[in-house]
Write a structure and sequence with these properties.
heterodimer; A: Neutral Protease, domain 2; six-stranded mixed beta sheet; 25% helix; B: alpha+beta; 3 helices
Chain lengths: 704, 165
Amino acid sequence: MKKLSLLLLSIVFVATSSFAQQKKTQQGHTNQNKFKQLDHATPNSQHTASGAPGKKYTQQKVDYVMDIVLDDDTQKISGKETITYHNNSTDNLSYLWLQLDQNMRAADSKTPDIQPNRLPRRTSKDRFDSTYESTPFEGGFNITSVTNTDGSKLSYTINQTMMRINLTKPLASGETFKFKVDWWYNINNHRTQGGRSGFEHFPKDGNNSYKIAQFFPRLCVYDNVEGWQNDQFWGRSEFALEFGDYTVNITTPADHMLGATGILKNERDVFTRKQLQRLATARKTFDKPVVIHTQKEAEKAEKKRAKKTKTWRFFAENVRDYAFASSRKFIWDGMAVKLSGKTVMAYSYYSKEANPLYGDHSTKATAVTLKAYSRQTFDYPYHKAISVDGQMGMEYPQIAFNPGRPNADGTYSDRTKYRMINVTIHEVGHNWFPMIVNSDERKWTWMDEGLNSFTQMQAMMDYEEGYPLGRGLPKNIVKYMSGDQSRIAPIMSKGDNTYSFGNNAYAKPATALWILRNTIMGPELFDHAFKEYANRWKFKHPTPADFFRTMEDASAMDLDWFWRGWFYTTDVTDIGIKNVKKFYATDGGNNSVKFIEDKGGNNTAKKASDKFFYEVTFDKPGGLVMPIIIEYTYKDGTKGRKTFPAQIWRLNDQEITKAIHSDKEIVNFQIDPDLETADVDVTNNSWPKKQENKFGKFKNKVKG
Amino acid sequence: MRFKKIFLLLLIVPFFAFTSHKYYLSLTQIEFNSSKNSIEVITNVFVDDIETALNEIHSKEFKLDTKEELKEADIYFKQYLQKNIAFKVNGRPVEFEYLGKEYDGDIVFFYLEIKNIERVTEIEVENSLLIKHFSEQQNLVKSNVNKKHKSALLTKKEHTAILTY
C-alpha cells in the first residue's frame, strides 16, 4: 500500500507542477461559504449574544398628558401636551428629538420631490381637478408654543419631520425633563389625499369620519444601537417610538362616537344609559358581538349636528403611541374574548356604509386575532383591541383602521370579505409586532411587517376552515423571487429603499418564516424559539440580530445560512435532479461486494443482494442553500420520502451526489413534491423527467 | 410649479401598512414542444389587475373568480390577449389559440397555443399587457426553445423583444 500511495502522490505532484508552469500562482480567496457564520454586531450587556436583553439594557420612558380638540366644522385638530421624558440611559443628552410626522403633508414637504413621476396618459376628471388645483393643501404641524413647565420658552429647531429641543443644560442620566408643546394642523382627507390617518367625507349626509394618528409631536427613540433614531419620515417607513403612559382628554362634538387607545375613565359622561347597559352585556358575551350603539341610532345622529361638545378622558399605560377614531356615523359593537389568563374586549366602529360586512366580520376577526396571536406569543397585555372602518390599513396601539365595504345593496363577494378579514387580522395583529415587541419600523420594515404577516396566517386558519391563505405560502412567492433581479432588494434593506415593498417586507419574510417553521426547524422547535423572542423583547426594542440569535439560541440550530440566503441576499431556490444512476451489488470475490451500474438490458451477473442502489446527482442552479426533500415512488406504487438537510451543500454549492439504497425498486424521484421551498423552476425536479408539463395537463383537462 | 407638487403628492397616495401584491408583473412562459409541433404559452397576471383593466375597458363588473363572474369573461379575455400579445415565429406573424384560463389564488393563468410550427429559430414577442392601466407594469417573458432558455423584460418603454435560439 505504501508504494501505491507514493505513486499516487508523485502523480499529483507532476500534475500540479505542470499546471503551475502554465498558469500564474493561484490566488487565494476569502471565506465565501454559504454556511459561514454571520457577523452580527458584537454582543454587549444590553443586547447579549443569546439574543436577549442584557443586564444593563436600558430604555427611555416618555409620558404624555394631552388635551385634544377635534373641530369637525373646519376639520382641524389642536392639542396641548405636557411631555415628561425619563432619561434612563447611561448617557447625558444635550438635546431631545421629536417626530413631526404631519410635516410630511406640509406644503414644503420634500416627500413628493424625491418621487420620480410622469404625466398619466389619461386620468379621471375628479383626479384631474384635484391634481391641478392651484392652492396646495396646507398640511403639516403648526407649532404654536414650546415651553418649560413654568411657561418660559424653550429653544427648538425643525428639520422637516424632526424637531430638536435644544436643552440649556444636558439632561443627565437618570434625570427627568418636563416640557410643553402646543400645536394644530389641518386634517387631510385620506380618501382623496391619501395618508395613514385623516378623515373621510360622506357627501350624502355631509358627515366626516376621523381616523386620527401620528397627530402629536412625539419623542424619537434614543438607544445604544442607533443613538437618536431620527431618520426623516418620507411617508412609507413607519415609526420608532418609546413606551410611556398617556393621559388624554379628547373633545369632540357631543354627538360623536369615539374609540381610542387606553381605558375610558368617564364612561358615564359620554354614554347613554342604554349604551352602558349594552356595554355591560358585551363585556359578558363571548360568542358573538353585541351592538352597543346601533345603526338606527347612528343614522339618527348623522342627520343632526350637535352644537355642544363632550370630552372623552382616557388613560393608557405602557403604550408606544396613541390614536383614535371619531364620527357621528359610527355604529359600535363589541364582545369579550377569553385568553389563557384574562378576559379582554374586541370592539368595532363602523359607518352604515361598511355594514353588514363589518357587523358580520370585524369584531369576530379581532377576537380571533387576539386568541391566535396570544397563543403564538404571549397573552395580549392590554384590555381591548379595536377595528375601525377606516378604509385604509393601518395599525396603532389597541386600535386599527381597516378597509373594505360591501356593495350598495349590502352584498359582498368572497374576495371583499377575505380581503377585509385579512387586513383586519393583520392590523389588529400588529398590536404584537411592533406595538409591543417594539422593533425599529423605520429601519427594518420586515421585523414588524414580516413577523406579523407570518403570525397572521395562523389567525386566518383559525377564522374558518378552508380559509384561503395567499401571502406567505412558498408557492406564492415564486413569481416575485424569480422576477427581474434589478428590481429586487434583500429583505435586510431599509423600507424606504426597497422595490416591491409588499413582497420585500411582508410576503418574503413571512414565507421565510413559514418555511423555517414547517420545513427547516419543525413546529416544536420553531414555536418555542419564536415565543421566546416575543417574550424576551415585549415592551422593548429588539434588533434583527436579537431575532436571529434568539431563534438559534433557543433551538440549537445554526441558521446563519438561512438568514444569509433569505434575508441578506436576493438568491432563489432552484434545486434539480441532474442525473440518476442505478446500480446492483454483485459478489466481488474475496469476501467483497462490487457495485455495478445497471444500464438496462440483461444482467447475467449474480446479485449479492436484493436491494436496489441509486446514485442521485442533484444540481443547484439557484443561489439559496435549502434542504433537499425527495419523494421516492416505488414500483408497487407506494411512496417514501427523505429530507437531506441544507448542510448537504456545505462543501459543494453547485452539485452533490447521494447514494440511496432501497428494498424496493424506485421508479421516480421527485424533489419538493409539496412545493415547500419556493423552488422557482420545478421542471428539473423529477426523474425521469415528467413528460407532461403544466400546459399539457391543462390541455388534457380542457379536452376531457 | 405649485400644481406640480400636489400632483406628485397624489401619485404617491397609496401608503398602506398592509399591502396587497403592490407590484405589477405578468409572466409569460413560452415552450416549443417539437414532438407536437406547437409552441405552448402560459401567461399569468394578477386577477385584480386584469379585472381592473377589463372593468375599465368595458365599463362592466367582471367579478372574476367569484360565483357572479361575468359569463362571457373568456370571450373578453381572448379579445384582450389578442390585442395585447402577438408573436412572430421565424419572422412570420402567427396566430395563437386561446385554450382557456385557470385561477390559482390571486393569479390567473392563460393557456395559449401556436400550432403547426416545425422548427423555431426566432420568436418575436409583443406584450403590452396592462401597460395602459398600470404605469409600473412589467411583463416578463421566459422561453425554452430547443433546450435554450431566453428571456426578456418588457415595459412601458419597450413592448417587443426578439428571442433567437
